Amino acid sequence: MRIPTEQAIAQQTVGTTEHAITEQAIDEYIIAPNINPVPEGSQQAFVNDSARGSTEAPRIVIELPPVFRKPPVTFQPQHRFRVLQKFEGTVLEISEQECRALVRDLTSPGYVEEVTFSIDEISASDRSLAVPGGIFYWYLGYDDHIEGQRYRSSAIIFRRVPAWREKDLIKAQKKAESLIERLGWKREDSSFQR
Amino acid sequence: MKTPPSRDEIEISIFGPGIGEAIVIHMGDNEWLVVDSCIDRITRNPITIKYLKDLNVNISSSVKLFIVTHWHDDHIRGASTILEECEGALFACSGAIGSPEFIQFCLSSRGALMESSGLDEFNDILEILSSRTNDGRMESRGPQWAIADRKLLHLPKKGRCFNVEVHALSPSDAAMTLALREIGQMMPKAGTPKRRVISQTPNHASVALWVIIEDLNILLGSDLENHPPNNLGWKAVLLSQNRPAGRALVVKVPHHGSSDAYNRAMWDQMVFSDPIALLTPFASGVKPLPSTADIGRIRKHASRIYCTGQPLGWHSPRRDPSVERTIRETVRTRRLIHGRMGHVRLRFRAGEGLKNPKIELFEGAYAVG
Amino acid sequence: MPKTLEFDLASIIILGSFNPAIFHPIWFKANGLIRPEEADKAKLEITNPMLSIFGIEWFKLQVETNRFVVQTDTETHFELLSDLVIGTFSLLDHTPVKAMGLNRAMHFKMDSEESWNAFGDKIAPQDVWQGVLQEPGLLSLVMQGPKQRPNQRSEKLINVRVEPSSRTIPGIYIDVNNHFEIKDNDLQKVLNILKESWRDVLINSRKIADELMKEND
């Protein structure tokens, strides 16, 4: 398998952290959680190999050497946010106190609203993303906690994408040049010709 | 609404839902001009396509020219669909859009997850143009670069009801230079976070158009604004030695009637006294347009003013009461900006002169009193 | 309502060639794909060239050499799951890929054992099995569309799995797998599918589940 450049670099970084675990050092690990745990003694536990090519949600135990024996861990959420309304927002303007944004209704598509809200509605760790052009999701609904308490809730979460890379910009530039040539567009001085 | 114009009837239809605008013009002989694009909120399709299909127009052959006056979201949403369906149409767009800088800007945003719908549309337009090149269909289809003083279309009267010409009044050379500089500034830089592109104002790349259909002149002001230098905006248009002569009877008021786009000399020199003024609202921004002051300014030049919709006062959809309560608790201000699609339609019958067009208002459109 | 959605899990699975050692919270943090606090609090199970598993508050990631799996049960992060995968593979843009699954697994609690049994009888009629098995009961049912024929493999198909839920009793588990075959290791196609289809997949998966359970309302 060819290791891509980025992966090779990341691999070096990972190898030097305290979290790096070599095979020899492993005592145990948590097997992937079974989403729908198989009933004890069920034949379903022995899934044939053809399922390994499946892209269905994982529900099989990974078969590895006996040293890896810990039982599967299932999700046990402490709370569950029941979403009643979703928006996608774009920040238009931001000040120290306030954010002005365009929000597009994802629950009833076709409606677009312009809103302003306090900057305090944005998590501290997302504040750096709250700049003009930054995109967020805004969810409204009920937050039901495991102990039975329900809270009416609003959550603004900013979308995260990797920063621009030099190679992506160079690729776009080359593609632009090739496209312009293919389309036969030429510009001389300030007038356009075809 | 669904009765098509007759062969010798000129139609000007303008659509605007609060963000975005589009114009269709019947130039006679079932030949149409489409300018810009906006989408119908319910169907999510370009409103002009729906309208023309409702009139039983064969859009693949009857649309002769499709112009995108600039790349901002509100003028281009759905444009790639129009281009794809109007296979026989010549495509024209602002000269600034064909620049390597803008193409690179578009392509770099493709797949970035943060592209604006305007750039997204333009990427789709590039793909369509590219595939038409591969099919050998490009030569007669454009794009025609719209720059100041260029004639984009001429349909001579021979065999037709009317002589038709479409001229670009802008952007000027200086505006092109400024537009390209702005695009350069918007170009992403390595290491910087990806953001959605917010439409910039002023829009120096904007294409104002002069449409001549026999004796009728139509001025489509797009978003062209007024700037101090003589080589920009409306001043550059007025000073041009090469722009078509004559005065317009119908004006699409530039930039939603904003004070930034108002040029008195434009009204005095290029437009008849008491023309028909058409407007679309712009409900976003700190100041929705047109304001009362904007209307007052236009009233000095026209008594017949029609707008496709109010910039304010639309209602949000009915939502769960707890959702509405939470929204009210979270936001400080709130305004719906994409409302009902309004439509103003003018029809001029040949032989009846240009004095008494039939004026129809649909959906949210209204006569500014 | 005769049923309530008790547990809802969205997952994205990509089959291809991966180096699991890369998929570490620090890498995601360094590339701005997760919040710094999320990375710092990540629960790292294992990371080595064969297998990497870690979880943060809202997703769990598991990567083997030929399989990438990320999943969340937090509805407010369903859309963000797609962003995470797009962001990851925008960076790892030479990753060979051969298939992708966009999945939504739902556990519905039924209002009574009676309606639970009625659903089972509807989806897998008992009378067919009465003469064959003693007290037959539905264990698992998988339907696929479109039907796959020899030498005619669809590039896109949907598998729907229906089982009694082991998470909520009496309950029904419905798992909708939207499977995409990817030719020529075309990673860009994977990213395009995610960008254009993820939201629709989530909506349609829920519609499928609602449709199957409709007559029980």
Task: Walk me through this protein's architecture.
The complex is a heterotrimer of chains A (194), B (369) and C (217). Chain A is of the alpha+beta class and 194 residues long. Chain A has two domains: 1-76, no CATH class; 79-158, OB fold (Dihydrolipoamide Acetyltransferase, E2P). Chain A has two helices and seven strands; from the N terminus they run H-E-E-E-E-E-H-E-E. Chain A has helices spanning 5-15, 166-183, and strands at residues 79-94, 98-105, 112-118, 135-145, 150-158, 186-188, 191-193. In chain A, strands 3-2-1-4-5 form a five-stranded antiparallel β-sheet, with no helix packed on it. Residues 1-35, 38-52, 60-75 and 189-194 of chain A have low confidence and may be disordered. In chain B, helix 8 links the parallel strand 10 and strand 11. Chain B has one domain (9-189, 215-367). In chain B, helix 4 (79-85) runs parallel beside helix 6 (117-134) and helix 5 packs across helix 6 (117-134). With 217 residues, chain C is of the alpha+beta class. Chain C is 29% helix and 34% strand. Chain C contains five helices and nine strands. Chain C has helices at 25-30, 36-40, 78-91, 113-123, 187-212; strands spanning 3-16, 43-47, 51-55, 60-64, 67-72, 97-110, 141-145, 156-164, 171-181. Chain C has a nine-stranded antiparallel β-sheet with strand order 2-3-4-5-1-6-9-8-7. The longest helix of chain C is centred in the C-terminal third of the chain and has 26 residues, at 187-212. Chain C is globular. The interface between B and C is small, with 3 and 9 residues. Strand 3 (112-118) of chain A pairs antiparallel with strand 14 of chain B, so a sheet runs across the interface.
